Amino acid sequence: MRFLCAVILLLITALTASPADPITGTWRLRFAGPSGSQPKTIGSIFLNLAVNGSEVTGTSNIGAWPGPAPIANGQIAGNSLTFDATGHITSKTGIPTCHFAATLNGTELDVIMTVTKNPGGPLAANTSYSYTGTKVTP
After folding, report:
1. Strand, helix or coil at 91?
2. Which of 65, 95, 130, 137 is the most buried (most CB within 10 A)?
3. Which residues, in sequence order, are bridge partners of residue 97?
4. Model-level pTM?
């Protein structure tokens, strides 16, 4: 009887556990091209993402400049997510806001980053940059 109770408890636990969220975690993004168009100050981008329902929150670190930035307006639908990030490191061109549109393809995150506010310096106005990344921590 105890064995049967233990088996039933394990089955209930297995059936009620939620599947692992494939987006939540830390991602490292690397520039994906085209060759020669990489922003000087952004070698790689780190995203620390959390998903709660259809909302995406967290932080980003957009290279050496614009640097650390909280995620705002984060939304997820299926395998696509969007959010904005405004850096904190100022320069003579101001502090840019970047819009991210990402798609999860298996274990990779394909990202288009577009400067939407205060473009200038190494970030050209209304230019989109392609990045691809993998999760470094769950």
Report:
1. coil
2. 65
3. 86, 117
4. 0.81
The C-alpha atoms of residue 82 and residue 94 are separated, in whole angstroms, by 23
- Domain layout of the chain by residue ranges: 20-137
- What CATH architecture does domain 20-137 belong to? Beta Barrel (2.40)
**Residue holding tokens 């932080």?**
59
d(CA 108, CA 16): 28
Count the residues in the chain.
138
pLDDT in tens, 43-81: 899 999 999 999 999 999 998 888 899 999 999 999 999
Contact status, residue 67 vs residue 92, Cβ threshold 8 Å: no
Report the chain's C-alpha Rg in angstroms. 19
Tokens for 70, please give them: 């909280």
Please give the Cα distance from 72 to 26 (Å, whole number): 17
Specify the DSSP element, H or E, that contains 131: strand 128-137
